[in-house]
Design brief:
Helix content is 53%, strand content 14%.
Length: 290
C-alpha cells in the first residue's frame, strides 16, 4: 500500500483515483472545485489545500489537468507539488500537453531530484472508468518500471515510447490519425447526403471494405443518426490539434491534412459546437462557406 498524490479530479482523474484507491492505496488529492473536493472527502480520500500538500509523503504524484501551463502551475508553481515532494518521488502526468513543455517540466523537476513521466492517455471517459486506457509514456526507463504496476491499474495497453516528451509525441500522433479519420468520415457522409443516398446503407456497404475502421464504426452511426452528444468534446480535440500544429510549425514540417483539419476544428469551435462530439465536423461541412 502506497501513499499517492493526485491533482485534478475531473471525469478522467476521478475514475483513475477510484481504481488506485480500490487497489488499497492511500490518496492525497487536490482540486480547485469545491464539489469535487467534497466528493473526494466523502470517498475517504485526504483532501489537501494545495498541490504541494498533496505531494507530501507521496511516493508518486499523478496529475490530470488541461493544458501545459496548468501542469507547470500544479507541479512547479508557488504551491506546486515540487515544493512538497521528496527527492525520488515520481510525478506521472496524464494530461495532453506540448512535447516541449513535457521536456521542460522534466528538466525542472530533475533539478529537485524528482522524476517525471509524461503519460497521456487515449480511450476517453469510458476507458478511464473501465481501466482500459491506452497509456503512452515518456521518461526514464527506471521510473517507468517503478510506475508500471500503478499504470496497469488504469489502462490495458501501456507503452514506454522513449525519453521525456515521447509520450506526448505519441499522443499527438494518435490525435492526428484519429481526427483526420473523423474528418474523412464526415466528408464521406456529407457527400452521400448531398447525393441523396441512405447514410446507414452507405456505412453498411463500406464498413466491411478497406474503409472499415474502429473510428468509422464509432462515428459513422453517430453522424447518420445525427447524434452529436459528446463522447469526447470537440474542444479537447481542437486543443490537441493546436498543440500538434504548433509542434509541426516549430519543426518546420508541412503536414497539409493536419492543417486542413485544424482549420475545420477551429471553424467548429467558432460555430459554438465545442462542447458537442467531434462528429459535429459533419455539421461544420453543412454550414455555408463564407
Amino acid at each position: 500500500m502506497l501513499t499517492l498524490g493526485f491533482i485534478g479530479l475531473g471525469a478522467m482523474g476521478w475514475a483513475m483515483c477510484g481504481h488506485l484507491q480500490h487497489a488499497g492505496h492511500r490518496l492525497r488529492v487536490f482540486a480547485r472545485d469545491r464539489v469535487k473536493r467534497e466528493r473526494a472527502a466523502h470517498a475517504g480520500m485526504q483532501v489537501c489545500d494545495s498541490p504541494a500538500e498533496a505531494a507530501m509523503g507521496a511516493a508518486f504524484v499523478f496529475t490530470n489537468v488541461t493544458s501545459t501551463p496548468d501542469v507547470e502551475q500544479v507541479l512547479l508553481g508557488p504551491e506546486g507539488a515540487a515544493l512538497g515532494a521528496s527527492p525520488g518521488t515520481i510525478c506521472v502526468d496524464h494530461s495532453t500537453i506540448a512535447p516541449a513543455g513535457a521536456r521542460r517540466i522534466a528538466a525542472a523537476l530533475d533539478e529537485a531530484g524528482i522524476h517525471f513521466l509524461d503519460a497521456p492517455v487515449s480511450g476517453g471517459e469510458k476507458g478511464a472508468r473501465e481501466a482500459t486506457l491506452s497509456i503512452m509514456v515518456g521518461g526514464e526507463p527506471e521510473a517507468y518500471t517503478r510506475a508500471l504496476q500503478l499504470l496497469s491499474l488504469l489502462g490495458s495497453t501501456i507503452t514506454h515510447v522513449g525519453p521525456a516528451g515521447s509520450g506526448q509525441v505519441a499522443k499527438l500522433c494518435n490525435q492526428i490519425v484519429q481526427v483526420i479519420n473523423i474528418e474523412g468520415i464526415a466528408e464521406a457522409m456529407r457527400f452521400a447526403q448531398a447525393e441523396g443516398a441512405d447514410l446507414h446503407r452507405v456505412l453498411h456497404a463500406i464498413s466491411a471494405g478497406f474503409a472499415g475502421s474502429r473510428m468509422l464504426d464509432l462515428m459513422g452511426p453517430k453522424m447518420a443518426a445525427r447524434d452529436f452528444a459528446a463522447g469526447i468534446p470537440a474542444r479537447l480535440h481542437a486543443k490537441d490539434f493546436g498543440l500538434a500544429a504548433e509542434a509541426a510549425r516549430q519543426a518546420g514540417l508541412a503536414l497539409p491534412a493536419l492543417g486542413a483539419v485544424h482549420a475545420q476544428l477551429d471553424r467548429l469551435m467558432a460555430l459554438g459546437m465545442g462542447d458537442d462530439d467531434t462528429s459535429s465536423l459533419l455539421r461544420t461541412l453543412e454550414q455555408p462557406q463564407n
